[in-house]
Amino acid sequence: MASFLASLVECVEALTVVLAVGSVRGWRSAIVGSAAAVAILLLLIAGLGRALTRVPLQTLQLVIGVLLLLFGLRWLRKAILRSAGRIPIHDEEAAFAKNSASMRRLPGSGRWDRVAFATAFQIVMLEGTEVVFIVVAVGAGGVGLLLPASLGAIAALVGVIAFGFALHRPLANVPENKLKFVVGVLLSAFGTFWVGEGADFVWPGGDWWIFGLVLGYFVIAILTVALCRGKTNPMESGVNIQTAVSE
Amino acid sequence: MNWLRTIFREIFGLFVDDGSFALLILVWLGLTALLLPYLGWVPTWRGHILFVGLAAILMGSAIRYARRNGS
After folding, report:
1. In whole angstroms, how large is the CA radius of gyration of chain B?
2. What is the 8-class DSSP label of residue A110?
3. Which of the 8 DSSP states describes residue A107?
4. Residue B4 resides in a domain
5. How many C-beta atoms surround the C-beta of residue B8 within 10 A?
6. CB of A174 within 8 A of CB of A58?
7. Quick one: how far is CA A139 from the chain centroid?
8. How far apart are CA A210 and CA A193, in angstroms?
9. Which of A18, A69, A211, B57 is the most exposed place for a label (fewest CB within 10 A)?
């Protein structure tokens, strides 16, 4: 689930740029550039996944847990600040318009458009690197987790491509901040749990404690949104879960 | 090679965008992992302390940012 939702956000961001490149510069080079990047990323997942099986599980959980915490808390902090209206919400329509305009300004170069290829390749590599990290991090937490984590990411990729190419425009209605909020909570909870496991802490209830951590981070995040809006008492501010994560 | 540098910068940016926030997280993780086992507290408390510290860092950092960039 964490892998699917996080991948969904990254795929939507990459699709916005690929659609802008394809519609302005031509689809052939944009699709080949994207496919080349996806192929490299798949090789990276396969290589990293195999290499990680040789690392002792406790060490792996500690290292991956630290990285997940840095990554997850960063996302959660950003989602909190966006929900509180302190930083602007990512606008896919605006990003599409901006990318299309900058693509139009560049000169054309015949049948094979190097600009389109390079731009599509670069954005898919950039956003895909985040997906690879999430898949590997979620998959490295335990035996047999890499496959479902990979399938989650692939499902997100296929879904976004299908919708994007059917609509021929960016998926502006995807509630990106809601997703980032939820993924930030999930990754922070997993990261905390795995750091604890790696450092030999004892969690009451074992793996079930992850749900407690998810709930804990969720409550903290909702409370922080209210506090960031400038109200000291979240009850007075009228903040509820729906409004806190929806903006 | 420019795109390679961009990718490395992006990978670093995956984990760090506010340096002090990332540093605080790392310091807290180091403190809890290295010091708590020597304090002789009940082992089940260690995870709770880890979480409370991380939650406080998250809240503190977000609230500080919100105050600095008040509407």
Report:
1. 17
2. S
3. P
4. no
5. 11
6. no
7. 15
8. 6
9. A211
Residue B26 lies in a domain: yes
What amino acid occupies position A216?
Answer: G
**Which of A119-133, A138-152, B2-16 reaches the highest mean pLDDT?**
A119-133
Is the CB of residue A110 less than 8 Å from the CB of residue A26? no
Q: If you average pLDDT over every residue of chain A, what do you get?
A: 77
For the entire predicted model, the pTM comes to 0.74
DSSP state of A113: -
Residue B64 domain flag: yes
- The parent domain of residue B31 ranges over 16-68
Q: Which of residues 17-56 of B touch A (CB under 8 A)?
A: 17-18, 21-22, 25-26, 29, 32-33, 36-37, 43-44, 46-47, 50-51, 54-55
Q: Are B29 and A69 in contact (CB under 8 A)?
A: yes
Alpha carbons within 13 angstroms on the beta-carbon side of residue A187 total: 37
Q: Does residue B38 sit within a domain?
A: yes
Q: Nearest residue of A to residue B56 by CA position? A: A220
Residue A234 pLDDT > 50: no
Domain count, chain A: 1
